[in-house]
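Q: What does the predicted 3D structure of Membrane-bound c-type lysozyme inhibitor look like?
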Amino acid sequence: MKKLLIAAIPFMLSGCSYYNTFVEKMQTDTLQYQCDEKPLTVKLNNQKQMVNFVYDNEYLSLTQGLSASGARYTDGVYVFWSKGDTATVYRKDTVVLDNCQLQNPKR
């Protein structure tokens, strides 16, 4: 019986890993924006307070920061700022994606 239990432990632990990945995907929203320059797909994880997206062939993970209005996420170089159904992306205080409009917003 002990041998069976010892053999089953790795399978049970791997199941926990898959469960955590599944739960995280459930807590992540995919937001589609149409910006002046191009479309932008943003993965928003409210629980972790972060957004992820690809810009200029670079995968960016930004954490939520202070904002007087709207939601602001930054990594120290890039800033994703959204308010309502619109968003803007900055790189070192320069706008790189402007007039981003959320497509099919939830109402």
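A (community wiki): The structure tokens above were generated from the sequence. Residues 28-102 form a domain with the Lipocalin fold (CATH 2.40.128.200). The CA atoms of residues 71 and 82 lie 5 Å apart.
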